[in-house]
Amino acid sequence: MKKVLIITQHFYPEIGSHANRMKHLYMLLKKKNLDVTILTTEPSYPNKKIYINGDFWDEDLLNKDTDHIRRISIKNRKYSNSIFNRLMYYLEIAFKFALLIMKDKHNFDYIFVTSPPIFTGFVGLFAKFKYRCKMILDVRDLWPESLKGVGVFNHVFIIKGFEILEKLLYKKADKIVINSLGFEEHIKKIAGVQDLLFIPNGSIKEELAPLTEKKGKTKKIIYAGNLGLAQNTELIDQLVPFLEDEGIKLTIIGYGVHKKQLIESIKDHKNVTIINPLTKKECFKIIADHDLGLVTLKDKEVFKTVLPGKIIDYMTCGVPIVGIVDGYAKDVINNEEIGLAINEHEPKLILEHIKKLLDDDALRSEMSHKAQQVILSEFNWEININKLVEYIK
């Protein structure tokens, strides 16, 4: 039986697409008769306090699997706008991962390491040489390109150093997995790597929400997910009063460094409901009760390459999407006809697209069914995991 070590900063019971991706990978690889161990951190994203709530620990199989899930504790504060605090957090995790690996007496056939942060990627490289095995690099975001995209870290010489490290990591990997086709050209260009595995974020069949016909004038839209550096929270702020004027309700299930600022800005508007982070299952129930799902990204070149996890969530719940996005995400939404995506940051024009969908029950129903069909055919974990299993076996 092949032995695989997964190294990841985020894992169950944490929320967010990173942790959800690693949870699906871990559980499905074990179902494929692989001996899988995971090295991760104690849950802390977006903050440690929410995991005191036992509702987040809703997977009995994972709760009991203490022999194969190895966690490190972290002292540094992570959830901050400060790039210095974040770097210290990432470095502390990388150091503790490496220390544990250095002392470990086990053997592995494959290391599966996910990046960013790039420091975790280099822990995987260290593990590759320590265990004398192959390394599979899972690229979930282009780093350091995304650092430049969020505009908080633009020191030219340091960025250049990170780019050199990024190229080295790509070249030393035995196989590269990408979760967005938008990454393909960049990785092939800078590292000369041709044979990539595309395994997108996705869902499993049992997660699909039952579809119900949403008729009438409910006019409810939802934003579920990160309110961070990459998301255009300023646009949400500008959009709220226009939605209020049209009697359109907005639900936000959010977390992230810009959450507090956004809530403070829109608190006086009666059409907005703010909900604190929930388990995936509870979040899906609420999403499915809405007419539309909203997704925004800042208008930067690097964000044209990504497919935000909330798009997958909306599709799983059968909720048509209004996307203020460009590039790969825009193409998926428009080409698959599961919503309307525009690269337009004028609130009045966005409102017109929202109203167009809210006024057409038949079109939304058609988009709902198409969204879940796309999940089953293109973003189905139970099918896509076979690409990785075939490589390992």
UniProtKB/TrEMBL annotation:
Residues 20-202 form the Glycosyltransferase subfamily 4-like N-terminal domain. The chain crosses the membrane at residues 83-102, 108-127. Residues 211-373 form the Glycosyl transferase family domain. Pfam families: Glyco_trans_4_4, Glycos_transf_1. Keywords: Membrane, Transmembrane, Transmembrane helix. Gene3D superfamilies: Glycogen Phosphorylase B. InterPro entries: Glyco_trans_1 (IPR001296), Glyco_trans_4-like_N (IPR028098), Glycosyltransferase_grp1 (IPR050194). It comes from the Bacteria. This is Glycosyltransferase WbuB.
